[in-house]
Amino acid sequence: MVGGRKNFDMKATRSSKFNYPEWAFKQVEMGEFRNLRGDNIADDEDEIIAKKLSMLGLWCIQYNPSHRPCMSRVIQMLEGTVDIAMPRQPFPIDTPVQTPNSSFY
Prior knowledge:
- With 105 residues, this protein is mainly α.
- Helix content is 40%, strand content 0%.
- It is built from four helices and no strands.
């Protein structure tokens, strides 16, 4: 939602932009929040919102469900009552890819 892009771009010419969540994590890691929105960030307040939403989004898509925040914590983060720490890499490199025939449980 921050970037206004599709999660997966089959026409991407650079593999780093092929999967938006992975690309977004790299941008957040480098502190490049303006890259997430491009020209849509008008001022510092918009950049702060982009930072908050992108970091929270990365927490919510953690591969391991136990690493995701509970909804009450998400609301606290959105309201600003708790700080949002830098999320871990949401997709560990050595994690097997889920297939339609495999089970989460």
